[in-house]
Amino acid sequence: MDKIVELQKLIDNANHIVVITGAGISTASGIPDIRSANGAANNKELIKKYKYGYETIVSHTFFMNRTEEFYAYYKEQMIFKDAKPNIAHKYLAKLEQRKDVIIITQNIDGLHTVAGSKNVIEFHGSTQRNTCLDCGEKYTLDYVLSQDGVPHCKKCGGIIKPDVVLFEEGIDYEAIHESVRATERADLLIVIGSSLVVYPAAGIPNYFHGDNTVIINRDPTPLDGYAKIVIHDDIKEIFSKLI
After folding, report:
1. Which residues are catalytic?
2. Alpha-carbon distances, residue 170 vs 62, 139, 146, 199, 242 (angstroms)
3. Which whole-number Å values give the CA distances from 185 to 168, 178, 180, in the listed order?
4. Which of 34, 53, 60, 140 has the fewest CB atoms below 10 angstroms from its CB?
5. Nearest 5°: CA angle at 113, between 157 and 35?
6. CATH superfamily to which 3-31+85-124+171-240 belongs
7. The CATH homologous superfamily of the domain defined by 125-164
8. Which residues pair with 138 in a beta bridge?
9. pTM of the complete model
């Protein structure tokens, strides 16, 4: 049976769907995969330009001690203001209108929410939300980008930090708890654009008790051997064929 047809049947017959998404779903929106060959983590020119590697710059220690350098990198390399939800984001948002769908995303771009999905667990936070470290006042991404250098709070003058999980910071307990709870009750698990190697998100599929696991990713994942359907193909092509 054609894999797309089989996937369509699984979706149609499912009652509770959990979708785990990674960088691969957003590359179709023009956001590069950080860990690809030319991504920020491996790009020697970027490391030379900013004098530090990706995991050093995007760490809690670097943010606190070298805030101006952090924001120079963050605004230039991690924000893609013109990126729009692609067909996969839009498909999942529409699917939520007729099915119980919970999205667990490792991405910080906020595109699932922009597409219209309501039940989204943002494992690593979102660039769309920002908080003053001193008084807790909330700010939009537009406000952060409108400020030269380090953005400061209009209310108290404190430094504003993106609501994203930096290296050395822990994943929000509630995000983990909600993800585990949703996965345990799901009867269909779909992984889209994730290599399933970054923990703790990569461990979430271990809580799935159903028989129907689907992997949609460019490269092989550690879960491929356990999945009912594995599709290594262009994400836009796949979702253009689904109803």
Report:
1. 124
2. 16, 22, 29, 11, 36
3. 31, 11, 9
4. 140
5. 85
6. TPP-binding domain (3.40.50.1220)
7. SIR2/SIRT2 'Small Domain' (3.30.1600.10)
8. 131
9. 0.91
